Every structure is written in C-alpha cells, then in structure tokens.
Amino acid sequence: MQIKTFQFNNFIENTYIVWDKTNECIIIDAGNNNDQENQTIKKFIEDHKLKPVALLNTHCHIDHILGIVFLQKTYNIDFCANLKDNYLIDNASNSARMFGLKFNEAPKINKNIGEGDVVKFGSSELKVLEVPGHSL
C-alpha cells in the first residue's frame, strides 16, 4: 500500500489517498476546499493513474468533509462514514460560517461504517476501529 498526504483548508487538515498495486484508491478525510485544492488532488489522482473507489472519513468535523461533494461528483463514489456523525454534517453550514469557510453543500453518508467493518479496495483491506472521543 502507498499513502499520499495532503494538507488542506484553513485548518491544515490531513487528507490521505491510499492505493495499492491495482491503482484502486480510497480518499480519507477529504478536506479540499477551493479550486486550487480540488485541482491538486485531482491532478495527483490523474498523474498516478489511480481509480478512486470510495471516500472514507475518520469523523465528520467540518474540516474533514469540505471536499466530499466535489469528489463524489467527480468520481461517482460512495461517502463512507459512521452515521453517528450525521449531527456534525447537519451542523456543517453553521460550523463553516463560524470559521469563515466556503461551504456550498453538505454531503450525505452513502454507506455506514463502524467497528469491525472491512473497507476493500483493489487487493487491500482496511479494518474499521471505532475510537470515540474526538467527535462522538
């Protein structure tokens, strides 16, 4: 497996692309929040000939969800997160306004993930561990 880390938005949040030898990838905590950041992540994916298959979130604080809708629309992929974080998504517009962030559309979780679930991409698997405390 390979991992690329990006630092996006005013919070300098970490966004990760994880891929394997098949070039299928997942994007974790998509925080890209403007045209430049959107193009940065898109260019990396294109330059490395990656095929995004899912968006995965560790939690859904505003800085971790800013790029979800852009990437869903660009790659037609599911947003996987724990439904317990829906309250954060529901309040995302208020959070963005409070921090002066551009935020147009709240994402919707397409696939609930929780303790013990396995996220598969390419020939790789990631096991979900719930570690509450930061957002729950």
Sheet/helix structural class: alpha/beta
SSE topology string: EEEHEHHEHHEEE
DSSP summary, beta strand count: 8
Approximately how much beta-strand content do the residues carry? 25-35%
Overall pLDDT level: 95
Residue ranges: pLDDT <50 for 5 or more in a row?
A: none
**Judging from the principal axes of the Cα atoms, what is the shape?**
globular
- What strand order characterises the main sheet? 1-2-3-4-5-6
Count helical runs. 5
Q: What is the first-to-last residue Cα distance?
A: 29 Å
- What share of the residues lie within helices? 25-40%
Q: Sketch the major β-sheet.
A: 6 strands, mixed
Quaternary assembly: single chain
Give the topology, please.
Layout: E1 2-8, E2 13-19, E3 24-28, H1 35-47, E4 51-56, H2 62-65, H3 68-75, E5 78-81, H4 86-90, H5 92-99, E6 111-112, E7 118-121, E8 124-127
Parallel strand pairs: 3-4, 4-5, 5-6
Antiparallel strand pairs: 1-2, 2-3, 7-8
